[in-house]
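Sample A.
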Amino acid sequence: PHPINSRSMRVTLALCLLATRPATCLVRGLPGRSRSAGLFSAGRRATTRPRLNAGLLDDMAAAVRGVSTGGGGGGAPTLEFAPVESAAVGDWDSLKTTLAASPTFKRMEAEAELRATGAGPAHTDNKLRLFGKSEGDVRVTLYRDHAGWCPYCQKVWLLLEEKQIPYKIEKVPMRSYGDKPEWFLRKVPSGLLPVIELDGEMITESLVIMQILDQTFPDNPALPAGDSPQFQRANALLKLERELFGAWCELTFRPGMGPFGARAVSSFSECMDRVDQALGETDGPWFLGSESPSIVDMQYISHVERMAASVLYWKGIQLRNTERYPNLEAWFSAFEERSSYMATKSDYYTHIMDIPPQYGPAYSNEESKTPAAEIDGSAGSWGLPLPPASLTALEPVIPHPTPGLEMSAADAEEAARHEAARKLCSNHGPVTRFAARGAGKPGRKRFGAPLADPYAEPAEDCAPDLDLALRHVVDALLTGEHDADAIQADLAAHVKDPEATKVSVEYLRDRVGVPRDMSYPAARQFRAHLNLAVDALRKV
């Protein structure tokens, strides 16, 4: 059904040049389509990159969306309790009424209605993408991780959006934060992600998937012609990307002391210099000088995004907003103007929590202490008032994550707050149950990601207290105002177990993930407002 053509053979042979031990294998599910195994092949997957079976917060996604990560289906029950009546804050119905008048709420509800029909902008909650075509035109199903943190899933997701290929989406948990559903293991016994189902055939390996999609759907090509100099440049750049990946792993995931640590820093920085130089060799921001990102750009962005977070957090090395890498900054900025990328982009905190379960423990140095404390909130950076969103911050903050949507700084801040309020208002029951795990019992079955515990038992007794604290959080998110003393007094008057409630709010705060739960601007606001409740409970 997918005959090999001359162009696909050129792709296969060119990638073979990158192999350290060439071999021949078949891409599963595509009879007659052979390729030579190289750095990106299924045959060398285990030796060329760490195995991807990770994440940490997806059990929160289950609670928020009413699904179970444990078995791949079913509803997430809420806790039955009588809410605390308080004159200081309204009930959920009154909070929802206030939220309903928000322009952000109206816009996001309209976008959700479009998503249900396969239309609208790119979004992590999409289940169907049609790009103006009919559902009968869909030939592709993308199987990706629930949370949107797998770098290999991200690049395939980006390609489908950029080429506007109609597709369906099925989400599957990574093994380190939940069980693989049986229905998926029957389709893909290895359980590895990403996978696409193209005309009924299952295809694995992200770079292979991207090549096959580009060949099968030739509109908006993401690779140059195989007989062009640009094609040879693409292969050279892919080889450089693997070199950069190796230098990053050597720097981040091996203990570096004395001359060995200095050598790893030098090797990574020198390789990044060559990447920046390569970006400067074209007229535009992209590696191949095209009008839109190519497969080469997508191959890079999914890991360079994670490098920007990880080398800053663990090594104190800044890749963004630095004079050393001007072309890299322009490239990042060009991606951040595209809705396809912003829908897939995580924040630094999410990355530093989801990277170790995927790649192994990372090792920090003395230079990383200050930026690390800002990224993970331990230095008070997650407290109110937050500094204004800024593109020149340690972690650049796009004031509003929807490219092309113009609004003032004040309106953008309100939009971020109201996005977070909408998420909590619409799911307050399951989220309360999820957060109550913080004071409950750990699950008997544990997973590799330390913050993942999908089988934990919530502390049901603290649900009324927790519900009241979360209503105060939403009230502050909606109004943009808060009286810390009044919140503390109200919690002191009603909360029976302040410590259990505080621990539960912290549990929720530490598991807010981007892009899975909300955009980064909204996550900043949500974490800071949850800390408002934490601080009040600490003083009760």
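Sample B, a different protein:
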Amino acid sequence: LRSPRRVRCRRSKRSSPISLAASYDVDAWRRGFFEPQDLEEGPYFMEGVDLPADLCGTYFRNGPGKFKVKDRSVAHEFDGDGLIFALSFTEEGKILVRHRLVQTQGLLRDEFKKEMYTVGYYGTQAAAEGLAAMDPRRKVPKNTYNQGICVWEDKVLALNDYGKPFPIEPAILATMLGDQDDGSWNIDGFLDDKIGFEARPKVCGTEECLTNISQTSDALRTVVYFFEFAKDQFRARYKIPRRVLLAGYTRISDFSITPKWLVLARPPLKVDTFKAATGASFQEVCSFDEGGKGELVFTTRLKKDEDEVTVEVENLVCDEFANSFELEDRKVVLDVVVADSWDRGRVADASRSRWEAEDPSQRPRHRLVRYEVDLASKAVTKREICGRHLSFTSVNPEMVGKKHQFVFAAVAHGEDEVGPMGGIAKIDVDSGSLDVWTVKPTEFVSEPMFVSRKESQGEDDGYLITVVFDGAAEKSDVVILDAKDVSRGPVTRFSLRAAIPHGLGRGWWQKGMTFTEDQVKKKMVLLNLFKKKMLEWNDMSLGYSTLGGGLFMKQGVKFR
């Protein structure tokens, strides 16, 4: 491993060159897009690992985990089917390990037909030819549920930006059928036909309520729906979701909250209105407007006691929000991961997978930037906190919407390069200093998940959990770091029986959620009873006729 160090985060220029001698192995990185081996005996328990004594709960991670059907690969990693990975740390020091694909209707359909039956949102084309290619259902993009996960009211939900959530059984990660035709769940009727549940939910650090958004766009406007659910309950604060209306077609990548405000960031985009009017995907409709202005939109979370405020910001391309908080005199501070340009995320040549065709060093650089916005005057001040390429930012969950000192992030291997994530960092937003641990050139990290110690004494008093994939050894390790001293390196590191691909989606930590061996065995027996039935299709529904929808309707089993 590289020697640990603390550095002051360097300020970067937008035009800073990319180092020609990358400090990572691109071939090793490309090996991280693979389909993991099934666990022959299902979930398994590990013992004898030297774990922190106060670590108790379950770590969930979502991300693409199936990239091929027969010999045909998806064009973009986010068109790969979702794979949930989970670790449960018991009070007795055992670790329950499991991973499983989200058993969506699209996955079952592809496996049954042995082809990519429909298009993907990010450029993957259906395998149909001739008359079969005329079937309009093949033009309906497949929801892969690989972008996020959340746990609320003891329900585990696999998330995707384009659909309703999929319920997941937490002990063995079986997919549970919801109440929608495709097997998803509309949260007991709260989500109507047009509304989804996106992949970056947040829990308010003040009210401990779950918040999230959904969005729909057409040529005339974009509607962003905002949801709030009471602490530990799927009981909506507002029976009808709050709506934010934005003129024209756009795409919101993330949102942020303070006790009073919902904050959205609108990127500077050019819009093909014809494609927007004909229902094309946002990647086809939008392109980056290099000379344009972005917008920050502030809408009150409270009753309509204040007007919406829109503030223009030069060339703002928000990839994600790290956090935000309020100051006096109607001022709001936002820590934003900004990109040098808007990456539409859609491949130009669908015949090759993006990770094989593209150089990851040529993707937009992401920096952590602080904006202080005066809502009264609409004045904006800007300060770069960290110029090192980074992603997967977060704060201590108790600090969401509050003034914070630290941001946790995955960072690139080298200080001056763009590329895959090769380190874990704690960033002091006041001083700009970086406490960072980096891995070998053949290793790559996923999102760092912060977990507070049992009797936490400070904002960074806890652990950071991540998964490291080694492309040379083709193995995956779980790494636990002391958040107070990240550069010291792992306090615990152990290998998994089966390697898992890069974790490109968001994760979740559920405090106190654990399972016994007996509980796991009983649930596996139940799942095995359903395995045969879940692939029993109605042959009458497999043709072109729109009268039959078996390939597009949920299967009538509880688990799959």
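Observation for Sample B: Confidence is low (pLDDT under 50) at residues 1-5, 11-20, 537-548.
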